[in-house]
Amino acid sequence: EVQLVESGGGLVQPGGSLRLSCAASGFTFSNYAMSWVRQAPGKGLEWVAQINNAGGSTGYADSVKGRFTISRDNVANTLHLQKNNLKLEDTAVYCCAKGMGGSWSRGGDSWGQGTQVTVSS
Questions:
Q1: Taking the CB of the first residue and of the last residue of the chain, which one, N or C, has fewer CB atoms within 10 A?
Q2: What is the DSSP string of 34-84?
Q3: What pLDDT shows up at residue 106?
Q4: Distance between CA atoms of 18 and 89, rounded to whole angstroms?
Q5: Across 90-103, average pLDDT
Q6: Pairing of β 115-119 and β 92-99
Q7: 43-74 pLDDT tens trace
Q8: 106: phi then psi, degrees, rounded to nearest 5
Q9: Alpha-carbon dihedral of residues 110, 92, 41, 59, nearest 10 degrees?
């Protein structure tokens, strides 16, 4: 059974930083692309960042490009999202998602429960 457990969320001031982590189990982590998605209050799901199975290729939404960095540790089966220069509009529940192959081209098929990030002064 695929399990994705996020951690690292919290309350942070604008301009601050947070590092989210996602512990993966129940599948061969190094074979699959991963992504972070988020859902802000009253809004739909927004894709944030993706990384291929080997970690050599990444992609970001325009809204976070230059501020967020996705990475993975295929030994520890962990996905990370380093978030810098946080803005009020980054407030959301952040979920990690498992891809359907080595790249994110076919989208995802499993999601974690999410971790809340609140940016507020």
A1: N
A2: EEEEEE-TTS-EEEEEEE-TTSS-EEE-TTTTTTEEEEEETTTTEEEEEE-
A3: 87
A4: 15
A5: 96
A6: antiparallel
A7: 999 999 999 999 999 999 999 999 999 999 99
A8: -100, 10
A9: -60
The length of the chain, given as a count of residues: 121
What 3-state class would DSSP assign to 89?
Answer: helix
- Residue keyed to tokens 């996905």: 79
Alpha-carbon dihedral sign for residues 51, 79, 40, 65? negative
Cα–Cα distance for residue pair 46/49, rounded to 1 Å: 10
CA–CA dist 12, 1 (Å, integer) = 33
Strand 78-83 and strand 108-111: the pairing is: unpaired
Q: How far is CA 111 from the centre of its chain?
A: 10
- Provide the token pair at 77: 């089966």
Classify 105 as helix, strand or coil: helix
d(CA 76, CA 120): 32
